[in-house]
User: Which sequence fits this backbone?
């Protein structure tokens, strides 16, 4: 054990799951002893059962020949195997090439501080350069070694040349092999936080998806519905039109049908576009979705170049039809159904045509409004709960204060009675207001009035030992309390 | 010499469980080198400083020789620890 260099000692300790501090002249022996202890523990654990690892952080390592090999096979990590290879081969190259100088370096490394001489630092600075070279050479050599021999070489170097040469690769190697356990430990320590943050991330993502889903359904759903309704109505319109026209107008059927169909179709489009505009920002400043008959007539006549009589006939036909055609005829009173063409004041589309942006906006507003309502409700409930809690707490406090007051009053009245028995007081009773004034300081009398009143009430109804009487004291009528329990009984309490 | 914020932060309070990189003059690079040798906490570095009998010069040489710290870094670190000892120890 004494032959191990600082770096090897550190490595062994780390391999057994222990994180040593700096290994100096003063701490070396302690850590060597610690390593022995740890190895004994590992060996004991192994004897008990091969399956169970001795420490949670690390798998057990064999102390003998298969030391390096075992860990390499178990872990299979590229980083750990790389440092191992390097460390095993480096000592042999040191030994071949620069064993003497390395030995000197090692010596200076340990003794220089005691002396504190500046000229030694030059030789120390060269160390990293020396370290780098063998390790690169070692990489090349290594591939020719089979695992077994490499392991043996590593062990031999650890025991035989350890003190002289092997320790010089400390910084470069330790950096390599430190990286693996460090990250593992951190990952373990932050497990809970990590999972929590993951969960929160997931939850917010799901919420976002739900929100988007509502939005999408609202948007596309309504659009799709609109479109199907529109097409349905259109076909229904056309079918009905053709059917009815076929029955009623036997002369110039085709022409009439076409004209009225065109007109109604145009009217439908016009109304739905106007209604859509009205819903989406209302650029034309319409007062309502309902379009005046005159405007509609003018527009339809302009587009289809037909006569007003035809328009009237079309309206008449709409009135007679029992099916929903997507056009509502409205009279002066919007809630009364219209029966004749003369009563019709305005026309309104049942299916407003809106653009994609507008639909999106409306869906968004609806979704946000729903969410807002939900939150508002939640906040209201929360507020009510907080208020109730506050109220209950207040009531409990007040009750507590009341009982305190009752106790104080009883004590005062009893004391007064005792003093009267010993002829220290003139009357066996005491005025209620006197008791109040002696118990409550003037500044808090107003605040405590409620509590006082409750206490008095409580005493009047629930306290048998105190009797409330009316007496004339100093020429003034006042309510007084008298202690009615004989003192030999009440004394037994104390 | 006006002292950096890092210096002030470190000297102003007990070092507790601070990492070695929070000592003035020790950057990430030097800090990782120190941590590789077991000096991962500031109190361990202070321990070594105390073992060297608070001798700033020897401490600087040690930092430069063992961990390749620059003269400036070594000076900053030694000053920082000296000042900390003066203030708090």
Assistant:
């Amino acid at each position: 054990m004494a032959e191990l260099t600082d770096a090897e000692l550190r490595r062994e300790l780390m391999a057994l799951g222990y994180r040593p501090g700096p290994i100096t002249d003063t701490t070396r022996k302690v850590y060597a002893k610690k390593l022995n202890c740890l190895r004994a523990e590992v060996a004991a654990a192994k004897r008990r059962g091969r399956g169970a690892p001795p420490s949670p952080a690390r798998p057990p390592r064999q102390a003998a020949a298969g030391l390096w090999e075992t860990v390499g096979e178990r872990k299979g990590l590229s980083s750990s195997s790389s440092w191992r290879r390097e460390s095993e081969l480096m000592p042999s190259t040191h030994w071949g090439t620069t064993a003497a100088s390395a030995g000197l370096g090692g010596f200076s490394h340990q003794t220089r501080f005691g002396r504190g001489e500046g000229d030694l630092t030059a030789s120390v600075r060269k160390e990293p350069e020396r370290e780098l070279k063998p390790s690169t050479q070692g990489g090349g050599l290594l591939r020719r070694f089979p695992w077994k021999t490499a392991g043996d070489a590593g062990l031999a170097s650890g025991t035989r040349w350890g003190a002289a040469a092997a320790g010089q690769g400390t910084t470069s190697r330790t950096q390599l092999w430190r990286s693996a356990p460090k990250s593992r430990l951190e990952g373990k320590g932050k497990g809970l936080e990590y999972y929590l943050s993951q969960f929160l991330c997931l939850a917010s993502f799901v919420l976002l998806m739900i929100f988007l889903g509502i939005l999408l359904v609202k948007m596309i759903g309504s659009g799709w519905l609109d479109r199907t309704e529109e097409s349905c109505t259109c076909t229904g319109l056309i079918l009905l039109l053709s059917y009815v026209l076929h029955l009623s107008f036997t002369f110039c059927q085709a022409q009439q049908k076409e004209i009225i169909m065109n007109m109604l179709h145009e009217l439908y489009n016009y109304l739905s576009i106007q209604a859509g505009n009205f819903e989406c920002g209302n650029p034309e400043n319409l007062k309502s979705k309902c379009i005046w008959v005159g405007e509609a007539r003018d527009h339809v006549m302009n587009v289809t170049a037909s006569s007003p009589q035809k328009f009237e006939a079309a309206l008449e036909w709409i009135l007679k039809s029992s099916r929903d055609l997507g056009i509502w005829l409205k009279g002066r009173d919007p809630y009364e159904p219209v029966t004749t063409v003369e009563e019709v004041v305005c026309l309104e589309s049942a299916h407003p045509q809106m653009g994609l942006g507008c639909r999106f906006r409306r869906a968004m507003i609806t979704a946000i409004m729903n969410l807002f309502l939900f939150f508002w409700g939640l906040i209201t409930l929360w507020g009510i709960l907080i208020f109730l809690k506050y109220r209950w707490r207040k009531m409990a406090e007040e009750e507590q204060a009341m009982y305190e007051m009752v106790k104080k009053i009883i004590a005062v009245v009893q004391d007064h009675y005792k003093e009267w028995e010993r002829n220290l007081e003139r009357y066996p009773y005491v005025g209620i207001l006197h008791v109040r004034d002696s118990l409550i300081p003037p500044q808090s009398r107003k605040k405590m009035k409620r509590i006082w009143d409750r206490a008095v009430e409580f005493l009047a109804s629930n306290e048998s030992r105190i009797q409330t009487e009316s007496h004339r004291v100093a020429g003034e009528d006042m309510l007084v309390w008298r202690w009615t329990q004989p003192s030999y009984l009440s004394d037994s309490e104390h | 010499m006006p002292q950096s914020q890092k210096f002030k932060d470190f000297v102003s309070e007990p070092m507790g469980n601070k990492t070695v990189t929070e000592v003035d003059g020790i950057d990430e690079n030097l800090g990782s080198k120190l941590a590789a040798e077991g000096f991962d906490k500031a109190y361990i570095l202070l321990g070594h400083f105390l073992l060297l009998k608070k001798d700033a010069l020897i401490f600087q040489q040690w930092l430069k020789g063992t961990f390749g710290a620059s003269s400036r870094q070594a000076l900053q670190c030694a000053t920082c620890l000296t000042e900390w000892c003066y203030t708090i120890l």
Notes: The helical segments of chain B are 5-11, 28-36, 42-51, 56-67, 71-88. Residues 71-88 of chain B form the longest helix (18 residues).
